[in-house]
Amino acid sequence: MPFIQFHVVEGRSDQELAALLDATHRVVLDTLHVPVRDRYQIVHEHKPSRIRAEDTGLDIERSDKFVLLHITTRHHTTEEKTTFYRKLCAELERSCGIPPTDVMVSIVENTDSDWSFGLGRAQFLTGELQGATGDDTSAPRGPKHPAELAGASLGRST
User: Fold this and answer.
1) 48 is catalytic
2) Residue 132 predicted with pLDDT over 60
3) Is the predicted pLDDT of residue 93 greater than 60, yes or no?
4) Does 83 share its domain with 152?
């Protein structure tokens, strides 16, 4: 994961939204180093009157192309985050025509116990997903084989 929520002004086509999601995922893969199928994205479309995104006094002009990404994720370094911000703006401008002035990002970090991907389990805690707290998070992450999980749950080594 990260779990990414996109808040946009309504009116984009399905193709434009797909380009936005795909471009963002490419940057996530490149900068946050997650597996290809680690993709959780939801688009929220709002009427223009339902979004107020000013500039916090930074003199940033916004347009109807504005997009706010609210990202919930496990810990990432400051360098990973700042690289993500920079590369995201470049990729969205290149692939989607969204200027950097219209890209806003908010990242909220959580812990391994805050994630359940289904089946009523916290897969980072059960060991079904690698890279749990204390593990080498640079190691490839991904699900273990079900046979390994069955053996582990019965106390057998695999």
Assistant:
1) no
2) no
3) yes
4) no
CATH number of the CATH domain containing 12: 3.30.429.10
Nearest to 97 by CA among 15, 155, 32: 15
Give the bridge partners for 91, in sequence order.
none
Reported as half-sphere exposure (CB side, CA atoms, 13 A), residue 56 has a value of 2
Q: Which residue has the higher pLDDT, 150 or 31?
A: 31
Segments forming the whole domain that contains residue 25: 3-110
Nearest partner of 81 among 60, 56, 58, 109, judged by Cα: 109
How many angstroms separate the CA atoms of 7 and 12, rounded?
12
The number of domains in the chain is 2
Q: Which entry of 2, 35, 100, 143 is annotated as an active-site residue?
A: 2
Assess whether 117 and 133 both reside in one domain.
Answer: yes
Does 39 lie in the same domain as 7?
yes
Write down the H helix ranges in 6-145.
Answer: 14-32, 78-96, 123-126
At 131 the pLDDT is 59
